[in-house]
Amino acid sequence: LFRSTSAQDLANRRALRGLLAQVPPRAKIVATENLVPQVSNRPDAYTLRFSVYDAEYLLFQLPIGGDEQRNALPVVQNGTFGVIDVREPFVLARRGAPTARNAQILQRMR
Length: 110
Known about the structure:
By secondary structure, the chain is an alpha/beta fold. The chain is built from 4 helices and 5 strands. A 5-stranded mixed sheet has the order 2-1-3-5-4. Helix 3 packs antiparallel against helix 4 (102-109). The protein is globular and about 45 Å long.
């Protein structure tokens, strides 16, 4: 069954492109399962379902749950990663970035 592209689908694609434009092409990135295909052309792209690994960037979609939440929540809570941009429904964080925006996202991650 073919489903047409909605206005929300187009908005989500624009938001994701805007976030991915901020990630250097060779940077190590970890993403939620549904977003890994969007970054899989990079040399080091990991799935958040297993771990954060040595990723420099963290990309996820809200709401987040399960193993992905279990792996992402601690590194946002403890400040290992700082949220650098939010483009609904996606969040981009970078290892070592300022954490001023973390609290706002943590409320939505729980």
